[in-house]
Amino acid sequence: MFGYDWPRFHAAVNDLPAALLLVTVLFDVAAWLTKRASLQAAALWTLWAGVIGGWVAVVAGLEAEDVIEHGEAIHELMETHETLALVTMGIFTVVLAWRLLRRARLGGVEETALRLLSLAGLVGIVWTARIGGKLVFDHAAGIPAATMQTEMRDRELGHHHHPGEADEDEHAAPTDTAKPAGHTHPPGTPPHKH
Description:
mainly alpha; elongated
């Protein structure tokens, strides 16, 4: 599908809906504070787009779950991530449906309840994203074992810059210009002669 497998497609489509739903809540709160109809309209449009895109991301995630290699730790995190995503999307879907059904006839209590529900959904987005990040960055979910093994071997070999190549680490210690060019020692190397 578009050159993507399910895990890559999920990764490609999950950020935009989360951003749209965050902006929805911000527009809604701004509309409430400023009483501007234009911000309320922007909140509704971003809610629409966020809900549609969010469900696309959820479906892609459900499909990705079935095809990535994983052990028990990843499986437990995936189940938590899935539950949080479903609850979060359920919240925003209810908010959208309620706003569409009631249109402009929302009372003050309804507006407040929907705003609080949206804020709960925003907490859900952050929590879902945190677990998703943990899956990828702490457990390498979606990375095939063969790819990880190759990367681990490559990392063991280390990375060395070629002479004259800029040091990419902006926090690196200043280089000693008295040493021969193109030859550096890792921090903590005991003094020695060449």
